[in-house]
Each structure stands twice: as structure tokens, then as C-alpha cells.
Amino acid sequence: MRFQTSGNIVETLWKVQNSRYRRYRYFCNIRQQREARKRQRIMAKLRRAVKPEEWEQHLESMDRLSTPKIPPKPKLFGRKRKWRPVNVRRIEELSTPTSRDVPEPRDPFAVPATALVYKISRRLSKIAKSKTPSETAPPRIPGKVSPAALKAKATPRLIILAKPAERPAGMETDVRENAFTVSPTALTAKCSKRLKLLARPKIYKR
């Protein structure tokens, strides 16, 4: 059996002091002390705010508020109705349709008495008058150029856009002599499934 020397003991003590567990315990103790001091400060403030005779009442109210609430039992919707005998006459009365009197036919050309005594207001008399031709806009002549368009000056950009597009001369770009000619690439092209599907006429539901 070998005994540890003083050098080994010092080394092990140094390792224990600098170990992670010791550091963890040190920080935990500091945190607990900090929380205890914080709790003491809060309690001291509470004691200063609450009177000594009200302290027990305060603790009771805190205990009551901290306890979890017990949810009440769910109540069934509706209430039980007492059994009553079936009244057949009442059911028959409710099942019969209501009888309503047919109103007398009204004369469409008859003027009501209130309309004969009615006095027209100023606003209605003003609205009832037809507008004079000067108030309405004159009818527009189709094909007539507006005076604003006659005075307008074309910008360089408008002049460029007004000119026809210049395309290179060729059979494909110019107007064809025979409109039904097919290009050789179209004759050798292979139709895909998607094109075949799109080429089918669409059927609309009536």
C-alpha cells in the first residue's frame, strides 16, 4: 500500500479547488444568497407597507390567491321540463293555416287625398324644371378632331413610335404570296402530348 506524498496531496487539492463542480457549487451558492437577499428586501418592503395587525390577513389572502382554483362542474344545457299531457285541440289550432282577408282591388288611376292637398317645396319646384340646352353639353360629332389635338406638338418619342416598324426583307417576315404555304420546319416537327391535348376543341357545359 502506497501513501500519497505531500506533493500529490497538494496537487489533488488544487485540482478539487479548480474543478468544474466546485465552480458550479460556488455560483449556485452565490445565486441562492442573492435570491435570499432579494426576498428579504421584498419582505421588508411588504412589512413596511402592511401594518403588523394586517400581516396575518395579508398572508391568508396570499395563500388563498396562490391555491389553484377548482373548476366548477359543467352544467347541462337546458332544464328538465315537467311532463304535461298532450293537448290535441291546441295542436290542431296551431297546425291550421291562418285565414287572411283578401284586400279590395285598388284603382290604379285614383289619386290619393294627401296628394291633392300636398304643397310643393322650393327644392322640388327647382328640380322639376327641365334643363335648358345651354346647360347641357353639345352632342359630339364623330370624326371631329378636338382643338387641343390640333394645337399639340409631337415629341421625338411619339414621332419614332408613329413610324412603322422596320423589318428585314424576306419570305418569312413580309406578306406571303400564298397564305396557305407551310414552312419545312413545321412539316418535320413532332407534336408532343401537351400540344395534342391543347389542339382538341374545348367542350363547354350548357
Task: Give a structural overview.
- With 206 residues, this protein is mainly α.
- It has a domain at 9-66.
- It has ten helices and no strands.
- The longest helix is centred in the N-terminal third of the chain and has 30 residues, at 20-49.
- Keywords: Repeat.
- This is Testicular haploid expressed gene protein.
The ordered H/E elements are: HHHHHHHHHH
- Ends distance: 106 Å
**Radius of gyration, in angstroms, nearest whole number:** 51 Å
Number of DSSP strand runs? 0
How many strands, what sense, and barrel or not for the largest sheet?
none
Outline, from the CA principal axes? extended
Low-pLDDT stretches: none
Amount of helix: 40-55%
Strand content: under 5%
Instruction: Give the mean pLDDT.
Output: 81
Instruction: Please state the oligomeric state of the protein chains shown.
Output: single chain
Structural class: mainly alpha
Can you count the helices? 10
How does the SSE layout of this entry go?
Blueprint: H1 6-17, H2 20-49, H3 52-66, H4 88-95, H5 113-117, H6 122-128, H7 147-151, H8 156-162, H9 184-188, H10 193-199
